[in-house]
Amino acid sequence: MQAVGAAAAFSPAVTPSPARRRAVDSGKGFSRSCRSGRVSVSAAGYSQLEVRRVSYRPPGTEQNLLNEISLNLREKSFGLLFGRSGSGKTTLLQKYNDSGNPMGPPELLTAQRVGIVFQFPERYFLADTVLEEITFGWPRQNTDFLFREKLALKLQNAINSVGLNGISLEEDPQSLSGGFKRRLALAIQLVQTPDLLLLDEPLAGLDWKARADVVNLLKDLKKDHTILAVSHDLRELYPLVDRSWRMEMGGVLKEEALPFENSGASKCKQNFDGEIIDFSPNSHRWNEETMSDADFCLGKGRLQEVETYILCAANVGQ
Ligand SMILES: Nc1ncnc2c1ncn2[C@@H]1O[C@H](COP(=O)(O)OP(=O)(O)OP(=O)(O)O)[C@@H](O)[C@H]1O
């Protein structure tokens, strides 16, 4: 186990361009003085990600948004953070300023070993072709030739591993389907072969087919990566989840298993806040307000279609 820094040290695996970074970072500045705790990512073979007693209070506010958050995750396992909107889940994944005090040997983990895919990553695509998008953040200086060459060698691997190999590298990223845009966002991170992938709402805004595709892709990626995702889509991700935590308002994180069965269609569903609700057709709570965006994609709550979707999600894990 190796600590990266006393306050955390995640950053995207491929350094985003200034424009992309501005877009990604907008609205969330961090004040070093308000943050405490530790985030560690082990070297390969050493088993896990560890977050220990991380607290954070946004500048100018009176209350902690994150309160002594601790979690750990085994290597090549899938962790899920869920909970109410605004409880601080995304903030926990965000890039932290380095505040020093690394723990020392055996091996300091570089930030390049962590890949982050933010929510709606396609909104930050800037290039005209798939190839340019993937290589956008690569170093341009002549002195970086060897590093660029190393990245180029990994490019095909990354493209294959997300199933983009049938797509021309000359394709305009904006012309890709929603699911393929997500694949591209993952490929951008995977080129640098990170050990840990942090994903913020990986299924958000996709139709049911693309969601099922991305879940299957994540299942494959889990064979080689440790993945920590923030999501409201508990049911769909459930087959992948090894550990899950609920973030409560006030910034307290509690480990909580997802209440689904191992196989077959579930009678449970969650609302926008990750709260588990009764799924039975006669339930007075069964209405559009309590459904997730996936249900809306499927026809605004006609029960038959939602049942199909639940069954489809249940099949993903088999
Ligand atoms: N640096 C900051 N300054 C001020 N407010 C902040 C800062 N960082 C986060 N916040 C606020 O903290 C709250 C929690 O945000 P966050 O995006 O982490 O929640 P979340 O649990 O991921 O929500 P959702 O599920 O809707 O994505 C938000 O109201 C956000 O505006």
From TrEMBL:
Keyword Nucleotide-binding carried by entry: yes
Domain ABC transporter span(s) in chain numbering: 49-274
Keyword terms: ATP-binding, Nucleotide-binding, Transport
Pfam families with a match to the protein in the record: ABC_tran
Highest taxon listed in the record's lineage: Eukaryota
UniProt biased composition (Low complexity): 1-18
Organism encoding this protein: Oryza meridionalis
GO cellular component, one term: membrane
Ranges where the record places region Disordered: 1-34
Stated name of the protein: ABC transporter domain-containing protein
PROSITE patterns: ABC_TRANSPORTER_2
Gene3D superfamilies for the chain: P-loop containing nucleotide triphosphate hydrolases
Keyword Endoplasmic reticulum: no
Molecular function terms from GO: ATP binding; ATP hydrolysis activity; ATPase-coupled transmembrane transporter activity
